[in-house]
Amino acid sequence: MPVGQRPGGRSTRVRAAVLTAARGLLADGYAELTVERIAQAAGVNKTSVYRRWTDLEGVLGDLLSQYASEVVPIPDTGDLGTDLEELALLIRRGMTGEPGELITALATSAPRNPRAAQVVRGFLTERFRLAEAVVDHAIARGELPRGTDAGAAIEALGAPLFLRLLVVDEPIDEEFARRTAAATTAALRAGVFEPR
Amino acid sequence: MPVGQRPGGRSTRVRAAVLTAARGLLADGYAELTVERIAQAAGVNKTSVYRRWTDLEGVLGDLLSQYASEVVPIPDTGDLGTDLEELALLIRRGMTGEPGELITALATSAPRNPRAAQVVRGFLTERFRLAEAVVDHAIARGELPRGTDAGAAIEALGAPLFLRLLVVDEPIDEEFARRTAAATTAALRAGVFEPR
DNA sequence: CTCAAAAAGCAACACTAGTTGCAATTAGGG
DNA sequence: CCCTAATTGCAACTAGTGTTGCTTTTTGAG
Hints:
Two copies of one chain form a homodimer.
Chain A: H1 10-26, H2 35-42, H3 46-53, H4 56-69, H5 80-96, H6 98-109, H7 114-141, H8 150-166, H9 174-189
The structure holds a DNA duplex (30 and 30 nucleotides).
């Protein structure tokens, strides 16, 4: 007797159709993004979407976790300043693309939707954690003292970019990313993120 | 024949009742905040609210503009580092209080509500502009070179605080505010915000 | 090929936000 | 005090989101 999940066949097809439809609609701005519209674009009944994902945020979260599983190349050029600059440019590219819209959509519904909050926070935490390697490498090279707070530094690096993405509606250009990286580098070198 | 607005009497009473009701409900978390609930708490019909403010965001924006009109004491201690630290602590206090919730609520609905976006941006732009005085004073004292980008520096100072307020759900404690200020000071002193 | 479980479709429904038309109230000049 | 315009209250209505019960289709093991 067949009991349990059903990973093959139509289920996967529906799942894929919904996710790609959501991706497509996301490009036109998430302001008009709705479960019913996604279902319609996917050629699927809205109940299927609701039953599987519960929420619009559920779909978006699923979409974001696809990006989360992608491997990102953490810069390792042998110099802290260059690494941080590369990192800032990397974050910038992510923000100006599709994941940027996803994060915006999820972050803005985070206060009202605990699951959405968890998804964004999880994504950022993971990415930030990976990025800490840049600081750790600098420590290993002796560029920074042992005990430097890598997490705090990465947070400081990313924050201005996120502020522009989510609140201030100003362009996140390369110049801006570079200057943000330079600011973080200067702060690190000045010992701001050393343990007290 | 009486033509025009009607600033006196019941109109103002209703307006005040709605705003104070909104303020009160905001303290219990804006997740459950809704126009109907506010109207009910104010002892007013919801149509009155909709007609006057159009939106929930309209009410919140009105509320925020009350704070915007309050005078904030920009620190001027004679030292850049101390000024920025005071400033960071000032921002922190604003965020942990009522205006913090207001800004969160408005910022999260900004992507879907252009008016809300405008209100938050206007508020922050104004506050940031005032804060630039701190950098300008340092320039006047000769602590920083002429032409230093005050706006960019203040943005860098505020960003990490806003990131925690809006996305990362970690405490915005004094220690964090102080370190953020120190990072910005270091970047300023290293000449990161000087014109190229 | 058969069949039971699982998933999807369908349609009706509940609920909430926001709108509209009309009646009742109120401000404030004459 | 009277009268007109502004404002509010009230109730019905629209639209869109999400839910539920049931039927139909599909999967995959035997």
